[in-house]
Amino acid sequence: MSVLSGVTLILAVLFISIRLVHAIPQLQKRDADFWNVRTYLTEDNSDRGPTPDGGQKYFHEAKFHHHYDGRFAARELLEAERHYTLRLLVKTYLRAMDDLGAETWIMHGTLLGWWWNGHIMPWDTDIDVQVSESGIEHLAGYYNMTVHQFQIPRAPWGEEGSSPDGTTLPHVSGGTVEVASGLGGGLKVPDYKPEMMEEERVQHRRYLLEINPFYKNDSIADKWNVIDGRWIDMSTGLFIDITTLRTNISNPKIMYCKDKHRYLADDIFPLRDSKFEGEPAKIPFAYSQLLQEEYGPLSLIWKMFMGHKFDERVKQWLIDPDWADRVRRNNQRLRLLGATRRRPQTSKPKTALKEPSRFNDG
Ligand SMILES: *[C@@H]1O[C@H](CO)[C@@H](O)[C@H](O)[C@H]1NC(C)=O
Ligand SMILES: *[C@@H]1O[C@H](CO)[C@@H](O)[C@H](O)[C@H]1NC(C)=O
Ligand SMILES: *[C@@H]1O[C@H](CO)[C@@H](O)[C@H](O)[C@H]1NC(C)=O
Questions:
Q1: Which among 69, 75, 324, 349 could disulfide-bond with 237, CB atoms 3.0 to 4.6 Å apart, if both were Cys?
Q2: Other CB atoms closer than 10 Å to residue 200's CB: what's the count?
């Protein structure tokens, strides 16, 4: 071998090994960069302040509220708007997962809402779903960072205080999937100006499916990454947390999520077919046992909760006028007391409005 070809060989080996090192994918510890997924905001509202997680947490939430994604949210929604947005979130999520063939089902407060009337309860602030291990593998492998677009007619909240009921929720159609190609060049979403947000709401909404790369770590010690994926409404920043139900290898009968919830495999599977918010949805097999364990037996009986009464005729949670009246009188009383006692105001005044606790009302 001549000196020259020896040098060439060494150079070639060096080059290849550099390429190899370069090709090893870096585990990105943060959710996708704001500038790559940006819609209409001019700045990222994610909480990037110093965190105790030591940079281990993948998903980040908005500075102003932990139920919003700061890359897409500029503000907190009003109550009626939030309720409406949550319903669209779960409708589109169920539809999309059905289309993509990922096994998912509803849990916790969402399941309780299903039990009563197949809808989100008016006071709920989030949606709980779980996916199977094969479900998350499927989503991570083929659908990470996909954007799903749904046609949605005009929002019904309109006037202040109007509360969208079961009949006014529009039928969502579409479910077009755009694949965010590699993300280097960003999503193919036009630059939105704030005034276009309303337009966006009227015509269609886009949802981003983002999977946490740490879903692969099945240890409950990975406490900063208990959420395995998110279904994010790109026009409001509200999202659904997706958690994987995992098999405990040393005890396959007891399954768990990284958020430390444990379940008997037989309580979840086989899943049952039902409907939620008008969409085909799966629910855990032993739903009533699960609900009673989590919320107590009265949660399936008691018809007064969070200032609402369940009206059997219309099968809906309606605002309880007695409760509203009690709150008003209570506030009045407290105001009077405050006036006579003249306590020095230290911090913020205590809010007088207090919701009755779950089971001692009535
Ligand atoms: C999903 O894509 C984001 C953005 O590219 C990336 O940071 C993340 O690691 C991906 N998740 C998985 C499971 O590969
Ligand atoms: C999972 O996460 C925990 C906590 O961050 C860490 O100690 C552990 O090494 C991780 N396991 C794997 C397989 O990466
Ligand atoms: C898995 O099962 C073992 C044995 O029953 C138990 O000690 C362990 O805590 C379980 N792990 C999880 C994450 O539930």
A1: 69
A2: 17
- Phi then psi for 94, rounded to 5 degrees? -60, -40
Ligand 3 touching residue 17 (CB < 6 A)? no
Contact residues of ligand 1, CB 6 A cut-off: 28, 32, 140, 144-145, 183, 210-211, 213
In a domain, 65, yes or no: yes
Q: Is the pLDDT of residue 354 over 80?
A: no
- The verdict on 41 and 119 lying in the same domain is yes
Domain span at residue 309 reads: 303-338
Spacing of C-alpha 126 from chain mean position: 6
Judged by its nearest atom, the ligand closest to the C-alpha of residue 71 is: 1
Smallest Cα–Cα separation from 258: which of 241, 271, 270?
A: 241
**How confident is the model at residue 101, as a pLDDT?**
95
pLDDT for 178-214, tens place per residue? 443 333 233 333 343 444 444 444 567 899 999 999 9
| Contact indicator for 177, 188 with CB cutoff of 8 Å | no
Length of the chain: 362
Residue whose CB lies within 8 A of the most ligand 2 atoms, among 219, 220, 249, for a mutation test: 219
Q: Examine the domain organization and report whether 114 and 218 are in the same domain.
A: yes
Q: What is the pTM of this model?
A: 0.77
- pLDDT tens digits for 252-292? 999 999 999 999 999 999 999 999 999 999 999 999 999 99
Q: Say whether both 140 and 244 belong to one domain.
A: yes
Angle at 319 between CA 314 and CA 324, to 5 degrees: 155
**What is the number of the ligand 3 atom nearest to the C-alpha of 248?**
1
Sign, CA dihedral 249-250-252-257, equals negative
Contact criterion met (CB below 8 Å) for 61 and 32: no
Could you tell me if 330 and 220 lie in one domain?
no
Minimal-distance CA residue to ligand 2 atom 13 = 217
Q: State the Cα torsion 287-231-69-87 to the nearest 10°.
A: -60
How far, in Å, CA of 107 to CA of 115, rounded? Answer: 11
Ligand in closest contact with the CA of 218: 2
In a domain, 308, yes or no: yes
- CATH number for 122: 3.30.460
What mean pLDDT do residues 339-354 have? 44
Domain end marker among 295, 324, 355 = 295
In a 3-state reduction of DSSP, which class is residue 69?
coil
